[in-house]
Each structure stands twice: as structure tokens, then as C-alpha cells.
Amino acid sequence: MSAFGKLWKRAPLWRTCLVIGIGGIGMACFFPTPSIKHYAPWLPGSPQKFSDTPPPNTSPSDGAPTPFTHVELPDLNATIQNHISLAGHTLPLPKGEWHPVLKAQAMSDIPYSLIALMRTDHGAVTGFIIAQAVQQPLPQISPDEMLTPCHDDRNYLTKLQITPSNVDCIFLGNVILPQSNMPAISFAEAALKHTQTSGFPLPPFMINADWIHANLIAPNQWTAVEEETFIAPLDPDTHQLLAPLGSWSKETLSRHPAAQNFISASRQWLPLWQKALQQTYDNTLPSGSLSSAALKDPAAPQ
């Protein structure tokens, strides 16, 4: 008889502790507490609260976490094409096969919905979308708070419009993605972390095409939405970055033709994408399909 077998037979107290310990680990995996879910968001169940940055139209003064009444981990194998629905509105999707990563609903002073999706092509993540929209009209908005990212002088492109009944901004920037071992402190970081822990490697760097929009639909009633489209500047054959990380600032682009060409193509595409987003969200799209050029970002599959 092995040493383990002898110990199992002769030490009933040790045997009981071992069984209880293994059972406790199993219960923790199937019914994780919020603290466990914070470090292992891929486990089943949903945390009662999920820390997130405020939506574009709010800025909580107390710094308290945004309470989420519902967090959903969709089937990553599901495929979505053409468009999504969010908070009663329709938003188009760029060309390719998109997969839902994370969904949430926040019930703070201003309820809003969030969704994250990724696009894959031959095993590489070539696109990522984070969209959020308010679920009910807002009594007022603060354009200064909404549009802070639009004033970043590091952006490759910024177009801003403010009228008494409309706020609209697009900008083109870049982002270095967080590593999978970093704690998830926002909805976007949680979505990226879930993607990585599910076996989908993310590129270290992506181009961010951001659209922020608000409409006055009635006296003292505003709708608001933000849609961030991250596209990966990857070589389609090697899935490696077209240029090193240090090549993508506005000051260094001219020395790296591959990076400069990708940014130039993105600058041409973004205004078309803005128009497609605005027309579908506002339900003002003329009869007929969306422009094919608007739906084909520079990282879209050929």
C-alpha cells in the first residue's frame, strides 16, 4: 500500500479535512464571491458590483464604483455581423465576424448599457469594440466632461461639433493594451482581460477610433452614446505589428511608411464611419445599405 493509501486509512481527521478542502475549492469555483470574481472573471456567476469609469455624460463626484445590476459573459463562439442593438438603438459593425465578449447594465443616477465585442481573423484579434449608451433620456449633459478626450493633442485626427441641440466628436488615437495579469478596474479592462484569459491573444497596441454623440430629442431630454472601435495595425500574413511600438506617435510616423500608411487610411475611413454610426443611431439612414467603404476599416479582412 502506498504512503497516501496508508495515511488515508489511518488518519480519519486528515481525510475529512482533505475532502472538505477539495469540496470548498469546487464550491468557490461554481459559486464565486465578488472578490474571487474580481481576480477570476472567467468563473461562472456575476459579481454584484463592477467598478467602471463613468459614462461620457456623467462624472460621479464621490468616486464610488458604478453598481452593475447585470453582468453577462456571452458565448465567445457566437458570431455577430452587420449591426448590434444597444439601449434601444442600432449601431453598425465594421466588416468581419464579431464575437460578444462582455455585456453589462449599470443602474446609477443615469442607467446605461455597455457591450464589448471582438473581431478575429485566422486566430488573430483584429478589432475590438466598446460601446455604451444611456437607457433613458438625460435631463441635461455636460459637453466639457463628455469631450475631454477630443482635446488631446496626441490624436491623429479630431473633429468636434457643438450646437444647442447636438454634441458630436470623433477622434483617432492609439492605446497600449493592458497585460492579462493586471487587475481589471474598468468595464473595458475586464472585457480585454476576459478575452485574453479565454485564449485569444491581443496585440500589444491598437488604433482607437472613438465616436461621442448626444442629441436633444425634446426639451430637457438628451440621448448619449460613445462607441470606441479599436483596430489592430497588423501584417495580415504574420499577425505582427506593421511597425515597432515607438513608431506610432505623430512625430515619428514619417520615418515609418507602414505606420504612416495605416494612419492615413484610418484618417480617411473615420469620417465615413462616423456618418454610418450617426445615421443608424439616430435612425436617419436613407433607404439602401450603408456605404461599403464606411464598413471596411483598414484592419478589416480582405
Structural class: alpha+beta
Task: Determine the mean pLDDT.
Answer: 80
What spatial form do the alpha-carbon principal axes imply?
Answer: globular
Report the radius of gyration as a whole number of Å. 23 Å
Total strands: the figure is 10
Kindly, what is the distance between the CA atoms of the first and last residues, rounded to a whole number of angstroms?
A: 64 Å
Tell me what you see in this structure.
The strands form 2 sheets. This protein has an 8-stranded antiparallel sheet with strand order 1-4-5-6-10-9-8-7, with helices on both faces. The protein has a two-stranded antiparallel ribbon with strand order 2-3. It has helices at residues 3-10, 12-30, 34-39, 143-146, 187-197, 257-281, and strands at residues 68-72, 83-86, 89-92, 98-106, 112-121, 124-134, 157-163, 166-176, 205-218, 221-231. It is globular, with a radius of gyration of 23 Å. The chain contains 6 helices and 10 strands. The protein is an alpha+beta fold and 302 residues long. The longest helix is centred in the last third of the chain and has 25 residues, at 257-281. Mean pLDDT is 80; it is low at 23-65.
